[in-house]
Amino acid sequence: MIIAPSFGDIFFNNCFKNGLLPIPLGEALVEDLFGGCGEHPGYRLTVDLEALTVTDEYGLSLPLEVDDFRRQCLLNGLDDVALTLQHEAAITAYEQAHGIG
Fold it and tell me: Tens place of pLDDT for every residue, the chain, 101 residues?
């Protein structure tokens, strides 16, 4: 997980391809999180990708917005190769039917 006020499009998309969750939060909120780190040694955030929340033990509770497809890929540990391999039987059948491979 990476939290920042914003992300460049390419970096944002590449995060998901590498199994990393980018969380864009407003600049003021990011500053508040840094403040929490200074006030509370060992400060922790909890990201619940199933419940789509970001919480801490001091009452912070934020909704998390993640595209459902990307969310499912992260929850299931699927990258582009793993997604393709889910169709391995169909790919093999196609290759055999067309004399490929």
Answer: 999 999 999 999 999 999 999 999 999 999 999 998 889 999 999 999 999 999 999 999 999 999 999 999 999 999 989 889 999 999 999 999 999 97
Provide CB contacts within 8 A for 93, sequence distance 6+.
Answer: none
Q: What pTM was estimated for this model as a whole?
A: 0.80
Q: Give the domain ranges of the chain.
A: 2-97
Strands (E), 1-101: 2-4, 22-24, 46-48, 53-55, 61-63
CATH number for 2-97: choose from 1.20.120.1760, 3.30.1460.30, 3.10.25.10, 3.20.19.10.
3.20.19.10
Specify the DSSP class assigned to residue 90.
Answer: H
